[in-house]
Amino acid sequence: MADKLVHKVAIITGATSGMGKAIAHTFVANGAKVILSGRDEERGKALEKELGEHSIFIAGDVRNSAYNEQLVNSAIEHFGRLDILSMNAGILGLGSVTELPDALWKNTMDTNLSSIFYLSKYAIPEMEKNEGSSILINASIAAYKSFPNHPAYCASKAGSLALMRQMAVEYAPQIRVNAICPGPVDTPLLWDSARAFSDPTKAVENAASKTLLNRLGKPNDIANLALFLVSEDASWITGSAMTIDGGILNA
Q: Which chain positions lie within coiled-coil regions (predicted)?
């Protein structure tokens, strides 16, 4: 086991699949104790079993402010402190502006953006007690690049970067706040996103071929960057949005 996060306690949302799951494995492998958040209890309990005694899964909906408070209280109750937030919960909310139902717009904004506010609101007072605390938001290149039928997703991800920068100003130097902006990563969300196109399989293949590195990202690619940004290796980085996209924005 590596030791970059020894004595650190993290809350990881969106932990039961894709990038969040890879981040959970990587954080625990580096010594962290983790509170795992997700809606799927079966997958969450399976992940808790995989990760062992230093992980606790708490099922719930990040759109609910009280659930986010519960996550923070559980970190303190079980592990005595809170040092890291890794926020990965997200949905797509597919549909053009003229077709998107109001309820789906709100659901997407609440899941992708409001949940960051809720969890940070309750976590920051605890994190300020500990040197080296760090907040990491999983945003997207959709904050910079638009895609058909993704208005709610693009807007929510751009909003998350604005919130990240504001919190970095507000809570420095006690807490570092950063974001990562993944490109096409081989996760269930990518394949769901491809449904916005007439040929989903071709859309995913095209995304891979358009990267400068000619492949999709892997969840572990994202987890490795997340580990760097929340560790002391990144102690002079805050208010930054790190693109990790195989070079697709430059293609």
A: none
Alpha helices in the chain (DSSP H): 18-29, 41-51, 65-79, 102-109, 115-127, 151-171, 188-193, 200-210, 219-230
Dist CA 112 CA 93 (whole Å) = 10
In a domain, 121, yes or no: yes
Is residue 120, in this structure, part of any structural domain at all?
yes
- Domain membership flag for residue 213: no
Q: How far apart are CA 60 and CA 14, in angstroms?
A: 11
Does the annotation mark 144 as catalytic?
Answer: no
CATH value at residue 178: 3.40.50.720
- Catalytic residue (one of 118, 122, 153, 171): 153
What is the value of pTM for the model shown?
0.96
pLDDT digits (tens, 9 = 90+) for 147-171: 999 999 999 999 999 999 999 999 9
Number of domain units in the chain: 1
Strands 33-38 and 84-87, by their bridges, are: unpaired
- Return d(Cα 58, Cα 44) in angstroms, integer: 8
pLDDT in tens, 186-195: 999 999 888 8
> Which pair of tokens denotes residue 14?
């969106």
**Residue at 79 is within a domain:** yes
Distance CA 229, CA 193 (A): 27
Domain that holds residue 179: 9-186+218-243
